[in-house]
Amino acid sequence: MHEPQLLIIDDEKAILHMLTTILKKEAFNLIDTAGSAEDALALCQTKRYDLILLDVMLPNRSGFEICPLIRETTDAPIFFLTARSTDLDKLSGFALGADDYITKPFNPLEVVARIKAHLRRHSGKITNTSKTIYRYGSIHVNALSGEVTVGGRTVELPAQVYQLLLFFCKHPNQLFSKSQLYENVWGEEFLGEDNTVMVHIRKLRKKIEDNPSKPHYILTVRGLGYKFVPDGGIHEHP
Predict the structure, then answer these.
(1) How many other β-carbons are positioned within 10 Å of the β-carbon of residue 30?
(2) Residue 193: predicted pLDDT
(3) Does residue 91 register a pLDDT over 90?
(4) Nearest to 150 by CA among 160, 163, 142, 140
(5) By CB count within 10 A, which of 48, 69, 161, 202 is most buried?
(6) Would strands 100-103 and 78-82 be described as parallel, antiparallel, or unpaired?
(7) Res. 81: pLDDT tops 70
(8) Is the peptide bond before 68 cis (omega within 30 degrees of 0)?
C-alpha cells in the first residue's frame, strides 16, 4: 500500500513542529517541511507529494503566488493555512487551485481529519494534470510519450524496465524493498524467492548508469532494498 508523502510549507517553526508531531502520531511518517517559497518549489520539482499544506503569508513570495507554480507539477490536494479568513481571501485561494482553506489558529486534529478525508477521495482519481516530465541530472523521462533520454541520447527500455524507472522517478530518495517494488511495479504479490526485481534493476542500470557495476543513481541499501538518488549518492556495488 502506498504511504502518503506530505509537504508542509510555513515560515513559523512552531507550526511546522506542531503539525509534524501530530501527523506522525497519526501514522503519517513521510513528511517534508519548507520554511520559504524557494525551498518549497525546489522540493516540488524533485519529489511527488500526495498532499501539501501551504501557508499564505510566506516571506518574499506568498502562498497565493506560488500555488499556481506548485499546481503545474502536481494534482495533489493543496490546503491553504492562513490567518486571513475573509470570503474574498478564501475565494482567491480556491481560484488559484487550492482544495481546502484552514484558518489560524486551528485545531490540529481537525487538520488531520481533513487530510485523511481528502486523501481518501483523491486516491481514486485519475487526471491528466499530474507531473509528466521528470529531469534528474542527465536522465529525462517523458511519462506521456514514454521517451527516455540519458545525456541527450534516446534510450530504448523494455516495458517493465521502463515502468521500474518511472516508479523511481515518481519516488526519488525513497527506500523500497524488493517486495514493495514488485507489488507496485508488477502489481502482483511478492512471494519472496523471485529474482525479477534484481534482474530488472540490473537491466535498468545498464541503460542509465555510466558504470553499472558502480551505480550512481540506483543504489543498493544492504539488506533493505533499493533507492533512486537523483543527485547521485556514494557509489555502491549492487
Answers:
(1) 16
(2) 65
(3) no
(4) 140
(5) 161
(6) parallel
(7) yes
(8) no
The residue type found at 133 is I
Q: Which residues make beta-bridge pairs with 136?
A: 139
Cell numbers at 155, concatenated: 534510450
Give the helix, strand, coil percentages of the chain, each rounded to 5: 40, 20, 40
Cα dihedral: 53, 73, 69, 83 (round 10): -10
| Torsion sign across C-alpha atoms 14, 6, 69, 44 | positive
The amino acid at 21: T
Length of the chain: 238
- Separation in Å, CA 125 to CA 87, 183, 212, 237: 28, 20, 37, 39
Residue ranges and CATH numbers for the domains of the chain are 5-122 (3.40.50.2300), 133-228 (1.10.10.10)
Contact 72, 57 (CB under 8 A): no
> Coil, strand, or helix at residue 27?
coil
